[in-house]
Each structure stands twice: as C-alpha cells, then as structure tokens.
Amino acid sequence: MVDSNLSFVRTEMLQGQTPPLAERGVVKWVRTNLFATPIDSVLTIFALLIIAWFLPPVIRWAFIEASWVGPDRSVCATVAQGGIQPEGWSGACWAYVNANFNQFMYGRYPIEEHWRVNLVGIMFVLLLVPLLIPKVPYKALNAITFFFIFPIVAFFLLVGGWLGLSYVETPLWGGLLVTLVISFVGICVSLPLGIILALGRRSKLPVIKMLCVIFIETIRGVPLITVLFMASYMLPLFLPPGVTFDKLLRALIGVALFASAYMAEVVRGGLQAIPKGQYEGADSLGLGYWQKTRLIILPQALKLVIPSIVNTFIGLFKDTSLVSVISMFDLLGIVKQHFSDANWASPQTPISGLVFAGFVFWIFCFGMSRYSLFMENRLDTGHKR
Amino acid sequence: MASQDITPVGKDSAKVSLLNDPKFRGYIFQAVAVLVIAGLVYWMVNNTIANLQRANLASGFGFLDGRSGFDISSSPYLAYSSDSTYLQALWVGILNTLTVAFAGIITATIIGFIIGIGRLSHNWLIRKICTVYVEVFRNIPPLLVIFFWYSGVLSVLPQARQSISLPFNTFLNNRGFFFPAPVFGEGAWLAGVGLLVGIAGTFFVRRWAYKRQMATGQQFPVGWTSLGLIVGLPVLALAIKGFPLSFDYPVLGAFNLKGGSQVGPEFMSLFLALSFYTAAFIAEIVRAGIRGVGKGQSEAAHALGLRAGPTTRLVVVPQAMRIIIPPLTSQYLNLTKNSSLAVAIGYPDLVAVGGTILNQTNRSIEVVTIWLVVYLSISVLTSLFMNWFNAKMALVER
C-alpha cells in the first residue's frame, strides 16, 4: 500500500463484523440442517411429529410409570388383573427383571457356587481388556493365555468336580452364562477352522477344494436351526451306541461348525484381495506353502477383513439365542421361560423381559461393532482405496 | 513340511526325491484326506445302522405316505387336515415358508430403501432417526424381535370383542388381523385376463420405446402408459362385466369376528420381525451402494444439464444398483433362512412341520435331509436368478 494523505482515503481498516444472526450459531445450524429447502422443512416437521408421538409414551412406559421393585406380580398388574395398579396403567415391570436377575445371569447354577462364574467372568474381563487396548504390551502372551489357558481353567472352574469343587452339570447352566460360553467357544473354534476351510477352498488340490466347497456351501445354504436340530438329533445317531453327549456340547458343535463356514467365506475374501505379487514374492524367497501362508499371506489377509470378522462374531453372538429353540436356556430362553412364572405373569411381564434381554444383547453387539470401527481406522495403513 | 517347495524342471526332475515333489505330495495329501473322510463316513454310517437297529427304527422315505395326525394352524393354499399325509404336511410347510419369505422380502426392501436413503439425507433429524433404527435392529437377535412382536405386542392386544378397528374395515385383536376378503363373482376372470394382457403390453411398449429412443432420441412416457395398461385394463374388464366384485367384510360377532380373511398372530409377528430386522441390513447396503457411486458421476450429469431428479434416476441409481444387488441377494436368502425361526412361535413353516414329524416318527435323518434339500434348492435357485440379473446389470466395458 502506498501511503496517502488524501482525506477521502480511509487510513485504518474496518473491524470485522460478526456474521448476521442467520449465518452463525444455532440459527445457522438449524437453517442448514433442518430447514434448508421446503421439502426439508416438511420432513423435519414430519420427523418431529413422529418423535413427539413415539418418544413420550416410551419414556413414560419405561421410566415414569414403571414399577421398579416389588415382591410379586401385583405391582405389575392393574386392579382388574389382580394387582394394585390403577385401571389403564401401563408401565414396564422392571420389578420382574429385578427379582429374576440372578436367574437371567446364571440360570439354575447353584447360588452358593455363583462365585465360580463370577471368578471366570473377572478373569475373562481382565484378560480381554488388555488384549483389546493396542498400547498394552505382551500381546502374544496375553492372547495365548486368553485363547488356550483361560478356556481350560474356565472349564474346570465352571464344571467342577475336583479340588473340593462340587460338580455342576451343564443342564443347570443358563442365562447370560450360556450365551457367553457358546459365543466364546464359537469364536475360538470358528476362526481357526474358518481359516483352514478358506485355505482349503483356495487350494490347488482338487479333492481338498471340493470337500471344503461342499462343506461351506451346504452349511451356508441352510438355517442355523436345522444345523442345531442336526447336532441335537443326528449326532447321537452317528456315534457308537451307548455314547451319550452333553446337550450343551451338541449345541456348541452346531454353532461352531455353522460359524466357521461363514468365517471361511470372510477369510477367503481377504485371501483373494492379496495381490498375486505377494504370493510370487514369497515363492521367490524360497518359502514353503505353510511359511508363505503364515508369514506373508494370512497377516495381510486377516488385517483386511477384520471388520467382516467382527461382523461374523456379532452374527454368531446373536445366533446363540437360537439354542433356546432346542430347549436350552440361554439369556433369551430363560427370559422366555419366566413369562409363564405364575408369580410374575402379567400383561407387562413379557415385553419388559424382552426389552431387558434385547438391551443386554444390544450392548454386547454394539460394543463389538464400535470396536471393529476403531480397529478399522487404526489398521488403515493406506492399502484401502 | 520341508521348507523348499521348488518345482523341479526338465531332466533333473528324476533326481529329486519323490517326497519333495509337490505334485506327488499333493496326491498323497489328497489320498490321505479322502481316506480319512471315507473312514469317518463309514464309521458314522455303521454306527447309525447299529443305533437304528438297536432302537428298532425303520428308515427310508416310505413314512411320508402315512397319516400325519396333527393339525396345522395355517394352510392358506392346500386343503389340509389331520388325516392328510406327512408329505402334504411338508408341502404346507414349504408353501408357508415361501409365503412369509416373499412377503417379508417385499416389505423389508421398501423399509430398507427408505431408511437407507434417509441415512444419506441432508436433514439432520431424518439422518439421526434412521441411524438409530439401523443401530437398534442390527444389534439384537432376530428371534428376540419375533418374540417382541409375538409375546410383547400381539398377544396383549384386546380380545376379539374389543377388537381395535382400523381404516378400510380391518380389525386387530389378539387372534390376528382381520380384513375384507374379495369375493369374485361371475365374469371376474376377465379382470385377470386384463391384468395379464396389461403386463404383457407393458413389456412390449417398453421394448418398442427403448428401440425408438435409441433410433430417434425421442422419449416415450413409458411409466404412465404401463400404469394405464396394468391398472386400466382390469378395471375396464370389470366395468364391461358390471363390476362382479364384492367384499366379504369381517363383522363383530359375540365372541369372534365373522367373515373376512384373517392373518394369525404367528404369521404377523414373524413377518413384521423379519421385515424390520432385515430392513436394517438392507438400509446399510443401500447406503453403501449410493455412496459407492463417485461424486464425479453426479457432477458430470449436472454439467450435462441434467437436473437433480433425472440425475438420480438415470445416473446414480443404475450404478448404485450394480453395487447393491449382490449383497441384497444374500440378505434375501438370510431372510428366507431366518423364517425358520417360525418354529419358536409355532408358525407352521417347513422347519416347524418337519420338527413335529421328527418328534412323531423319529425319522431324524430323513427329515433333516428334506430340510437340507429344500433350503439348498431355494438358495441355488435364488443365486442363479440373481446371477442372471447381475449379469444383465453388470458394467459393459469396451
């Protein structure tokens, strides 16, 4: 700028002004996000109407009108239904969930032995949390403990029958305990089995390939219920006469086989995404098949499909609820069983129990999906487009 | 295994030990696998035979001609009574499975597309509502959703006498959903003929319009013409015959609703649950598909002078469909397979009927085989159809 002493030239700059009210703060946000166009405004009003119609009754049902504590069904039933609530009352029966909480968690596991389940739960959390946090060292040791030592310890603790621990047979297990046991075993078995099946399907040996394809496609083509029926009705037939099989174990086998077929397809997707140069590079280094697979291919392939693997885990976790159909009492099964509990039967009981079970399932699945998102961002090393 | 895996070349191959020849090792490996599997199968078959003999159970599919002796609550297509055979019971089950799967697929697709597009909306509120929907339904088991509708909602509806009446003479109570049943009078068949002619006409009009547009560039209002043909012709046919169509309205009786058609609570809860649950997954597929179409595509369309509507219809959607269709197929198959959860609430689908037969006759091997065959055929047929469809939609490159 050239200095000027002409009186009509401004010498000092104007102060910046705050933007107009409509272009800043909440008003701008509302304008751009809710009322940008006429159609947007209509949609917003429509959505607000839906929320206004839907949310208050739900909140009133779940919190304000809900009965939280009580000895029996009377707190959850209107006078006409034999309870103490006024006519027209409609609220959640959390008292029922409260009273049966131990059942929902442990099933019929003896109350004085609950500490064993709790101990296993604490060990599970203590081993899992450091495994999930990337910064914590000793990952290999941690993983070995979690996937190999922990299941053995947990098995002996839960079943008992040694060192003075009383024997608790599996039909007594139930609730969230069974849900978690089935999903944990399913996850531990399906990942390695799925990897083997995927490698088999990509194998150059025609017989191996055919066997793997038949297994994977058959299992993937049928519903889990039929696999569970198969495991519970046909497995005993296949074994030598007289060999009986624990019911929980049958369900475990069914769920694990089912999940590994899905896992195999996920892993195969990862294997196919590895460029040919990686295989050729490994070959040119003189690595054998297993070395190549273990050191070069699988680490890259598995990393690519971590989100899908976690999605399969979520699916597996949700699918464990199906064991209630073959009369086992997982979380959903035991909640359902208690609907007919004469002490608590009321019009509000089923829906309260189901909302509670749904909430528990939701927390686990949502947590897993968030963790998979986190890992996806962390492992994104630039290979993705 | 040895660490060296080099394929021997040329004359030297004779010198390499047979053990290090990958081809030979491959044969050995496969032979061992075949032997192990064959041994396992032999062992299992032997055990099965021994078990069946010990329990005095017969085998074979001859039992299918036997009298079933159980009732099926819902058999909309076939006449079925407890005197019918097991085979007829299975047919009823298969048809029920297909019905609920078909109905569920249609609603799940509609809800899923609405929610999926809603998740991409500019409107913050709509986006959040759709996100909440997806995150809720994706993360709870489908069986729980079914129970939610069955025990939580439908079974606490009022009894028949206090039925909730809905528009169009429909009623809702704890025995299900009641709606007017159309009664076709004499000559109503002409409407059916009209519908078929309309559909065929639409097909030909589309082909003709496409050819003309390719040749001359002129567009023809295919949509309106098709609507006119498909709706207009049947109505016209009915008008000629003097509207031989009436409705049998459900009427509130002393204890139950009389007349009309009824959909039981089992079907309704299964149908609603499958639709809502699968819709969450379809929504995610639709969202990914639309986002997968590059921004350059819509920008180029705008640069060519296309407005927002035609851009979406002619540029974005056809390309998005290419991404959407393969995962959508697997969701349709998932829905069909999840319809087997019907067994938990007693809707007589294939698995529920088969389970009853299994309990009655102890023919576990036969029943499980039938399940496998039916579900695998459905899977294979769907994937064949979808592969054909996919090939039609696939990108044609130079």
Task: Note the main attributes of this structure.
heterodimer, A: 385 residues, flat, B: 398 residues, alpha+beta, 2 domains, 4-stranded antiparallel β-sheet, two-stranded antiparallel sheet, 11 helices, 63% helix
Structure notes:
The complex is a heterodimer of chains A (385) and B (398). With 385 residues, chain A is an all-alpha fold. Chain A has 3 domains: 23-97, no CATH class; 110-167; 171-340, MetI-like (MetI-like fold, Orthogonal Bundle). Chain A contains 15 helices and no strands. The longest helix of chain A has 31 residues, at 349-379. The two termini of chain A are 48 Å apart. Chain B is globular and about 70 Å long. Chain B has helices spanning 22-54, 86-118, 124-138, 142-153, 189-216, 222-240, 265-292, 295-303, 308-338, 350-361, 364-393; strands at residues 164-166, 170-173, 176-179, 181-184, 245-248, 251-252, 257-258, 261-263. Chain B has 398 residues and is α+β, with helices and mostly antiparallel strands. In chain B, helix 5 packs antiparallel against helix 6.
Helicity level of chain A? 55-70%
What's the total count of β strands of chain B?
8
List the secondary-structure elements of chain B in sequence, H or E.
HHHHEEEEHHEEEEHHHHH
Contiguous helical run count of chain A: 15
Radius of gyration of chain A, taken over Cα atoms and rounded to an integer in Å: 29 Å
What secondary-structure arrangement, pairings included, does this model have?
The complex is a heterodimer of chains A (385) and B (398).
Chain A (H helix, E strand, L loop, with lengths): L24 H9 L4 H27 L29 H6 L1 H6 L7 H19 L6 H21 L15 H27 L4 H16 L2 H15 L8 H27 L2 H9 L4 H16 L1 H14 L11 H7 L11 H31 L6
Helix pairs in contact in A: 5-6, 7-8, 7-10, 7-13, 7-14, 8-10, 9-10, 10-12, 10-13, 11-12, 13-15, 14-15
Chain B lengths: L21 H33 L31 H33 L5 H15 L3 H12 L10 E3 L3 E4 L2 E4 L1 E4 L4 H28 L5 H19 L4 E4 L2 E2 L4 E2 L2 E3 L1 H28 L2 H9 L4 H31 L11 H12 L2 H30 L5
Antiparallel strand pairs in B: 1-2, 2-3, 3-8, 4-5, 6-7
